[in-house]
Amino acid sequence: HAPAGPLDPDELWQRGVFVYTRKTDTDARIGRHAYTHMQRGGLEDISVDYVVVDTLRVDREVFASIIDAWREGYADTVAEHSGLDAGFTHAALEQVAASIRNPEHYVVWQVPVLSGRVSR
Fold it and tell me: What's the average pLDDT block by block, 10 residues per block, for the chain (120 residues)?
């Protein structure tokens, strides 16, 4: 979650990443479904926690470098599979990285972490 600027990062996720993941048979929302998968897999004592990667807990340059790597590794592929312009996908990720680097902005990425126990 990053502030909108000239571009709206939500558009990248809604019209780009989610379309890309559907077309590549991956699940961009796996965290939302993981509990059900684990439960159906027979695990017990399932817990769900979150790692909060944000501009208060993580060094801004480290956090921004993750987004830079995504831009370099995925922006063209997301554009190709989603129909978005590659210039937009690159610029949107650059904008998110710039927001992370801006000490006046707050950006957060919540990562679900699940655990469970295999019943005997």
Answer: 90 90 89 93 95 97 97 94 94 97 97 91
Cβ-proximal residues to 50 (8 Å cutoff; 6+ apart), any chain: 110, 111, 112, 113
What is residue 119's predicted lDDT score, i.e. its pLDDT? 82
Cβ-contact 16, 79 below 8 angstroms:
yes
Maximal C-alpha separation, the chain:
55
Alpha-carbon span 9 to 26, nearest angstrom = 20
DSSP sequence for 27-81 = -TTHHHHHHHHHHHTTEEEEEEEEEEEETTTS-HHHHHHHHHHHHHHHHHHHHHH
pLDDT of residue 36: 95
pLDDT of residue 4: 87
Instruction: Compute the 3-state secondary structure of the chain and give helix, strand, coil in percent, each to the nearest 5.
Output: 55, 20, 25
Decide: residue 114, CB within 10 A, 0-12 exposed, 13-18 middle, 19+ buried: middle
